[in-house]
Design brief:
metal ion binding; alpha/beta; transferase; 36% helix; Histidine-containing Protein, Chain: A; kinase activity; Glucose Permease (Domain IIA); globular
Length: 832
Amino acid sequence: MNPSLQLMAPFSGPLLSLPQVPDPVFAGLMMGDGLAIEPLSSTLLAPCDGVISQLARTHHALTLTAANGAEILLHIGIDTVQLGGAGFTALVAQGDRVRQGQALIEVDLDVVARRAASLISMLVIANGEHYQLDERASGLAQAGQTPLLRLHALPAATTTYANELTSESHGRATVRHAGGLHARPAALVQNAARPFAAQVQVAFKGHSVNAKSMVALMTLGVAEEDDVEVLAQGSDAAAAAAAVIAALQTRSQGAHATAQPVARPTVAAGMLSGVCAAPGLAIAPVLRLDSREPEPAQWADDPLPEARWLQQALQQLRGRIGQSVNDALRRGAQAQSEIFSAHLALLDDPELLQACQQGIASGLTAGFAFRQAISTQCQLLAALGNPLLAERIADLRDLQRQLLQILLGEQSQPLQLSAPVILVAEDLAPSQLTSLPQDKVAGMITAAGGATAHVAILARALGIPALVACGPSALQLRTGQQVLLDASQGWCHPAPDERSLSEAAGRIAALAQRRQHMQACANAAAVTLDGVSIEVAVNVANADEARDGLRHGADSVGLTRTEFLFIDRQQAPDAAEQQQAYQAVLDAMPERPVIIRTLDVGGDKELPYLQLPAETNPALGLRGIRSGFADPALLDMQLNALLAVQPLSRLRILLPMISEVDELLRVRQRLELLAGQLGLSERPQLGVMIEVPAAALLADQLARHADFLSIGTNDLTQYTLAMDRCNATLASRMDALHPALLRLIAMTVEGARQHGKWVGVCGALASDPLAVPVLVGLGVTELSVSPGLVPEIKSRIRVLDFAACQREARAMQLLSSAHEVRQRAQHCWPAA
C-alpha cells in the first residue's frame, strides 16, 4: 500500500481549478476536490494504476480506484450524460486493472463539443476527505506526462480497498414516510444515494429503478409501510446501501405544514364546493388564468442542434429556478425554497433526461422530446391511483410549460393587477402563483389539484385563501364576476346577494379592525394581567426587515439570520461588507438590543466556497457552529465584523447548534482574543441556541458561561422527535407542543434560572398564538416572531394570567401527546 500517490494528466490542455468550472456541482466541490482541464487531446489516459470500479453506461465518465483506496472520478465534459454515449468509445470495462498512461476512453472532440455544454473535463477525488491534495499543477498539461497533483493518505484512509472494488451489498427496507415515496421522500432517497460511486437500485413488486432518480422512485408506487429491496454494486456498496435504507426508513417532515384532504362539505344549491387548501374569507372579482400550452414542432432536421438547444434551455431554467430558491431563502420563505428545490431535482432526473435524449436521437425536436418524456412520467404517476403522487403531475407540467416557453422564445409577461382578485384556473403552478403580486391575490379557486399539492402548500404559507378540487363547475366562473369565497368552510358563492356580501364584509372588517387595534397598541409593553413582562422581538434577515419589525412595535431583534449574506455568491463577504450589514440592523432598531446569529450553514444550506464534505445525513453533520470550526478563518472574519459594530452594548451574538460547553468556551476565548487585538474595552453578550436535546440537558452548565439562551424550536423538535425537517409528510406530527419538548424547554429555563440568565424562543413555536400561554407558563421571557405577528403576540400576552399559565404548563408536561396539549390549551385559552 502506497499512502502517497502521484496523479498524471489524463488529457493535454490548459488546467483550471474546480471553482472555475461552469457547473455548480463541480465548482461547489459537491463531488469532491481535484482539477479540471480543457482537453486538446482525444484520448483519456489513466492518471495512475488502479481498477475501473465504475464505468458510466454512456461512457462519458468512470471511477478509477487506486491501490491506496483513492476513488478518482474522471468526468469528460459537462452534462455529457445527455449525449447518450455519442462521441465516447470505452476502451476498458468495469473491473479491469489498468496502468498509468493506459488509454481508457476515446473521445470524438468534434461531436462532444458541438452537442455538450462544455468540453471541460474533471478529475475529482470522490473520497477526498481521506486524503490531502498537494502539488497542484497549473498552466498547460501534457497527457500522461505532466504531474497533476499528489495525494497523501490521511491516517483514516490507509486501509487498502482492494477487496471492495467490486463489492455488492443488499438489504430490505420498510418505507416509513407517510404517503410513501412521493416527491420529497423520493428526493431524500435520491440525495442519500448520490454521494456514492456505487450503483443503487430499489426494487418493488418485481420492478427495479435507479435510486438516484427521483421520478423513477415515485413511479414504483411504494406506499407507507411497504417493503422494498435495495441492491448496491460498487466500491462503496455497503455504505451506499446503508444510506439508502436509512433514508427509506427515516420518518421525515418539512418545515411547512401539510393540510389533510377533507371531504367536501354539503352546501346550498348553486354554490361551488371544494376542498379547503388554505383557510380564509375573501370578496373579490374573478380573474381567470387559462394556461396555453406552447406547441413545439414534432420533427427536427438535425438532432445535433436540438440536443444543444435542450441543454441550453435546461441550464437557463435551472438558473431561473435556482434564483427563486435563493430569493426565497433570503426572505426566510422556507416553503417556497423547498418546493423550488424539488423542481431542480426533477430537472436533473437522469431517467427524464435520458428519455429526452432518446427522443431527440429518434428525430424529435427538443421541445417535443421533452414534452413526450414529461407526458410519459405523468401517465405513470396517474396510473398508480395514489392521490398524493398524482398531485406531483402539476410540478412536471409546470416545468414542461416553462421549458417550452424558453425553447420557443416565448416571453412570459407578468400580470399587472391594480386591485385584489380571486384567481380561477383548471390548476395553478407554483411558478404562476409566486410570480404574482401577493397583495393583489385575495384568493384562489381551482378545478383540479388537492390540499397536498405544492401550490396549496404555497397558498397556506402566503396566507392566501384557497379552494381546490372544485371540479369543472369552477371553470364556469368568468373574469370580472364578483364572488364570495369562504375557503375555511369549503365553498364559494358565485352570485352572492347583498345580505351575504354584507355579512362577509362585516366579518372581514371586524378582523381588520382587530388587527388595527392591536397595531395601535403594539408599541406598548407586553405585560400579563398579574404584572409579568415578556419581551416580543422579531426574526429578521436584514435591515429592511428590522425596520418593519420596529413599525410593528418590536421590543428588540431576537434573531438575525446572517447566512442570507453568504448565499448565491462564489466567495464569502469580507469583514467590511458584513460589518456594514450588521451595523444597518442595529441602526434600524435604535435603543433596542439586537441578536445576530453567527453563520448557520451546512445541512440544507450549502455554500460553494465552504468546502464541507458530502454527508449522508447532513442534518447530523457539519451544521451551525461546527461548520464555523471547520473553517476558522471564516468564523474569525465574522466575529471581527461583529466586534466592529457600535454600540457593542446593544449587540448580542448567538451561536447555533451548540451541543457542549467546550464549544461555547472555544468561541468565547476566540472572541476575547479578537476583542483584545482590536483594543476594545467593551464586550457584546454571547448566547447559545438550544437546538439539540444535549444542549437542553446541559442548560445549567451552558448558562454558567453564556449570557442568555435562545431556543430554536424547529430544530429542537426535529432532533427530539427524530423527524427530518426536509420532508412534509409528517408535518401534522412534528409539533413542538409535544410534552417531551415542553419538558426540555422547562429544563432549559430552570438551568438558566440557576445562574440568573434569561431564555427566549426564536423558533416557529413563538409565533403560534395557542403556544404563547404555554411558553409564558414555562418561564420563557422573550418571544421572537416575524414582524407582522408582533401586535398579535403582544395582544395575546396582555390577557394572560401568569400564575394560571404556570399551573397549566406544569400539567401539560404530564400529558401524552401534542394533540392532548393543544386540546387542553384550546380549552384554557379559547381566544387563541
